[in-house]
What does this fold into?
Amino acid sequence: MEKINNADNKIYDVIIIGAGASGLFAAAKSSPLNGLILEKTSRPGTKLLMSGSGQCNITHAGSIKDFVSCYGDKGKTIRSCLYKHNNLELMDFLSSNGVEVFTREDGKVFPVSLDAHDVLYMLLRRAKKNGFELKCESEVTGVELAEGLWQISCDNTVYKARNVIIATGGCSYPTTGSDGSFFNVLRSCLDIEITELKPSLAPIQVNEYPYSELSGISFEKVQTSIWDKSDKKKAETCEDLLFTHKDLSGPAVINISKHAVQGEKLKINYLYPLNYEKVLDKLKQAFHGAKGSPANIMAAEFDLPKRFCQLFAARHGEALKNLARALTGEEFIINSVSGFNKAMATSGGIDLKQIDTATFGFKRHPGLYAIGEALDVDGITGGYNLQFAYSSARTAIRDICAQI
It folds into this structure.
């Protein structure tokens, strides 16, 4: 590959690869540096603008100790950075820079304006103030260490830096530039290990999906679980469920979607925390001497949508035991999980075994860091992934600034 240095042969203190949330957090929280952000697409922060349906669910309220379990088995590994640079610090950073936030009833934190542009523009202003230059349409095709400096190749240009932060994201929403292609660069250039990449926070398709005509109907606080072929429970959650035209969605489904495998079972308890025995007892009492259709009686007793109850009774019959069993454990065979084009996050990425999570630097590559969704860390929906983007970015840039 032909290599042509910058015209002024500049050596940057740090180059950030990727102008998504984590990369911009790093630049915005930096001390004044000679910095450069390289973004492969024509504009920064595209995926950030999509977060929270454009309203930017930036983090979650409550104790940071409760965040750890929201990242599955990776939570304990990243606990230290979450504690040091927590949700309160992030909210204070936003408000102190003119982006006031509020907490919704469900604990999700948003900018008061409910506009992700306000967050993006603030981060860009802060990055520029801290000395970072932004170059869009600059796809990185090579990374190597030569003569004590990192050499970052973009087309026929090579940029030099003392430190490099990988903030390229995962594979979800590939049209935003987060298409996973940089993982191949890391494998080929630096022999960096990448764990299996799978869609996370995505709808689940099931065989013989029966609720297409109920698209848009939702349920609050239902229990969903995934069971493997040996009938062992793999994952469980209790959140809101949504029927769509083609699949099952809502937090109750997407938060366990990364555990879904074709041929395994998805079970739904629409009346959690009630179990089969309690539901059967309630059905017997409600039906005793009652007039009206089973569907209407069931809808009234459990405050369920009538259209759902009508279709449900047609599917499972009027026998109370069958209704009670299905209401507390309707089973579906998993067909597939929506692909990266619908997934809100990526399960998998740079293996954490290669990372010192006290700094988010690579153990074998001094001066090279990785943050955010590029790492094998993914949280549930509710602001947890943006919180990790901030916490890991703050940790990495703090280490770089301390050295410089």
